[in-house]
From TrEMBL:
The protein's name: Alpha/beta hydrolase
Keywords of this entry: Hydrolase
Single GO molecular function: hydrolase activity
InterPro entries: AB_hydrolase_fold, Esterase-like, Mycobacterial_A85_antigen
Pfam hit, one: Esterase
Record keyword Hydrolase present: yes
Length: 261
């Protein structure tokens, strides 16, 4: 594998931005780790999103994500969006436009990443779980699959560690969020209207001791009532890296990329 720490200028944000990138490399002499290249010239890619208190370094620092993907021929792009909740903020920067539009275009211009729907996936934890499903449900033509680990999925009415003041700066009021493209429940209803082969595959997991467990249960019930193609898993676990390090391995097993190899 190759690991790249990439600093660049964002025209959307008007500031310097950062992402960490793992790129496939076929190797035969690494001790203790297999290395595999992508099947074609452009790599399938997983956009891996961080939580509220983290940044683009957190997945590399707190999991073995590079080792987990080493034999898959899969690139991983890990951006920073600060405490934006993957939104174009009410009072702040346009982080949703940055991460959903500008970032993939820049990443593909810097690195040999595929732009085909069947090669693009997105996953994240907590705030990033919300961001991951938001990517796939808002842009089902771009992503084949999305995974939420302990996601903060009920942004309009569920639990959050944001203060009321910070929530207002990000999104306004909860009533303003309901029914909009920042509301996963509304986005799920739109996605359910698509033919099954145009809907992204969804993966959702949450530990039973997690403070977001009930929010996840509400989204699960809603998604299943709509007939979305969602795989759900739960087991004992809390809102911590012991759980996420375990479950990201399960997400990688689940990705439809596995069926193509």
């Amino acid at each position: 594998m190759a690991f790249v720490q990439c600093d660049f200028f964002s025209e959307v944000l008007g500031i310097g931005a950062s992402m960490n990138v793992i790129l496939p490399q076929a190797t035969s002499q690494q001790i203790g780790m297999e290395g595999a290249a992508a099947q074609s010239g452009r790599h399938p890619v997983l956009y891996l999103l961080h939580g509220l208190s983290d940044d683009h370094t957190t997945w590399m620092r707190r999991t073995s994500i590079e080792r987990y993907v080493s034999g898959m021929g899969l690139a991983v792009v890990m951006p920073t969006v600060n405490r934006s909740y993957y939104t174009d903020m009410k009072e702040g920067a346009r982080y949703w436009t940055f991460v959903s539009e500008e970032l993939p275009q820049l990443a593909r211009s810097f690195f040999p990443l595929s732009d085909r729907r069947e090669d693009n996936f997105v996953a994240g934890l907590s705030m990033g779980g919300y961001g991951a499903l938001k990517h796939a449900l808002r842009h089902p033509g771009r992503y084949a699959a999305a995974a939420s680990l302990s996601g903060a999925l009920d942004f309009s009415g569920g639990s959050t560690t944001l203060s009321p003041q910070e929530y207002a700066r990000i999104a306004g009021s909860r009533e303003e969020v309901k029914g909009t493209d920042n509301d996963l429940f509304a986005l799920a209803e739109k996605a359910a209207q698509l033919p099954a082969d145009q809907q992204p595959l969804l993966f959702q997991c949450c530990g039973t001791e997690d403070f977001l467990y009930q929010d996840n249960q509400r989204f699960l019930k809603h998604a299943r009532s709509l007939g979305l193609q969602l795989t759900y898993e739960e087991e004992p676990g809390d809102h911590n890296w012991d759980y996420w390090d375990l479950k990201i391995q399960r997400v990688l097993e689940w990705l439809p990329l596995q069926k193509q190899m």
